[in-house]
Amino acid sequence: MSGITAERGIPDTPPREESYLTAETGLASWLLTTDHKRIALLFMAAITVFFFVGGAGAVALRIELFTPQADLLSDDAYNRAFTFHGVIMVWFFLIPSIPNILGNFLLPLMIGAKDLAFPRLNLLSFYIFTLAGILAIYTLLAGGVDTGWTFYTPLSTAFSNANVLAAAAAVFVAGFSTIATSVNFIATVHMLRAPGMTWFRLPLFVWAIYATSIVMVLATPVLAMVLLLIFAERAFGIPIFDPLRGGDPILFQHLFWFYSHPAVYIMILPSFGVISELVTCYARRRVFGYSFMVYAILWIALVGFLVWGHHMFVSGQSMLANLAFSFLSFVVAVPSAIKVFNWTATLYRGQIVFDAPMIYALGFIGLFTIGGLTGLFLASIPVDVHVTDTYFVVAHFHYIMVGGAVSALYGGLSFWWPKMFGRLYPEGWARFAAVMMFFGFGFTFFPMFIMGFLGMPRRYHVYAEEFQVWHVLASAGAVILAAAYLLPMGYLAWSLVWGRRATANPWNATGLEWQTSSPPPTENFRAPPVVTQGPYHYHPEHAGPPAHERDPHSPQGGQVEREQ
């Protein structure tokens, strides 16, 4: 794995067999591939670019907010900068990252399939997504949009610049990619499971991707419709949202948040699946309450459609509606709490190994718990009225969507990197990056809770001087966080050339994806697998640290090697 492994004298594995990486060569073989694993890597390349492009907008914001005056950006430029950051990060990073990268690569492997149900549709989804992302970047750079990522009316329909239509078109086109990928995942789970892979033998990551796909298929058309309505009003003058001509701007909020609150779970449900896989592996125990975890995932997917109105407590909707949405917002927190309790119970008395994926998982649990608890504050009508449109909401959103989802993405990449590329990265650097990400995120966003409670409004770049100390702390934390995001790019790229060869199962994990070579062959398995038991069966002989931590000369270590 790392220098640590080399010092312990673990020999290199035999030369690797032909894999999906080496089966075909040449640029055309990648650009025209229908192999789900290669398409996952194409998505990884595109999403990584969008991540850093969107992150550039955040850098501009933090530099501007370092002082109370407008030093770097004008009023209009600041509006365009946070719109740029939001549009790219929400629709071209947070929503597609784990499903399109890890889901695409792992779903067929985890259920024993050769590929996704519709390989050509999978490739088409990648090209639609990439073209939409390029259109969004071009639009946001060539003049920009000043509405924020929510495109609120009547600003987006009557007062903003003409680039609104192009930016909305980019998001609209990206929705086709989202729906295509989701349909592919749903069909694959229903039709291509290996013999013996019953529904309640599915890994929790598969359940999470499946539930997310259902939410995507049901919710994304609503976003498409509301974007078309913006187009109809701007292009043809149809008075849908303009109150001066009989339209209703509150209708836009209802339609937008009916999609966008389920979209929150589109971003976080796949993270739940990743964290479940990491916690059970590095605690060397079965997931506590597997059935409860499955039902919690489905509960979140269902009830997530019923809570959109808590974004609108100050919009003028009826108090009865506010009370109903407040109650449902507390209800939807219950399955999330179940998952945190079950992860904690899985860790209890486990033989925990603090490798990088586990540190990312523990960081996720900490950040998500803070984000979830502050979500209960926002579900309470009096508190929400006080902190609406303040930095409290910014902090809550980022703790869930960025702190949680990005920690899970990095943890998942660390965990399955040896399976994807057949190489092991330097563990020491990976642990350092995981710890740095947790603390960097806390220094960046926790001060925003304090600012928001004290009354600092969001989307303002000129602010009262008493808030400067909190902004300086947040900007300093952002430097640490940026380093934590960049560092894995370096050591993971290094591992592709100089990393030690990975065995088929370097973590001694359960799951079908670990029963094939690293990296897998083109059709995933040399022989079709047959499933005879449920997931996460860590028997007594598998207790202890993962295989890469063991002495290969001990009887237990030898047993692991023979099993592999």
From TrEMBL:
Membrane protein topology class: Multi-pass membrane protein
Any matching Pfam family: COX1
Biased composition regions of type Basic and acidic residues, renumbered to the chain: 538-553
Disordered, as annotated region: 512-564
Transmembrane segment boundaries: 39-61, 81-102, 123-145, 165-192, 204-231, 251-275, 287-308, 320-338, 359-381, 393-417, 429-450, 470-494
Superkingdom of the organism of origin: Bacteria
InterPro entries listed in its UniProt record: Cyt_c_oxase-like_su1_dom (IPR023616), Cyt_c_oxase-like_su1_sf (IPR036927), Cyt_C_Oxase_1 (IPR000883), Cyt_c_Oxase_su1_BS (IPR023615)
Primary localization: membrane
Residue span, Cytochrome oxidase subunit I profile domain: 30-532
Keywords, sorted A to Z: Electron transport, Heme, Iron, Membrane, Metal-binding, Respiratory chain, Transmembrane, Transmembrane helix, Transport
Subcellular location: Membrane
UniProt similarity note: Belongs to the heme-copper respiratory oxidase family.
Protein name from the UniProt record: Cbb3-type cytochrome c oxidase subunit I
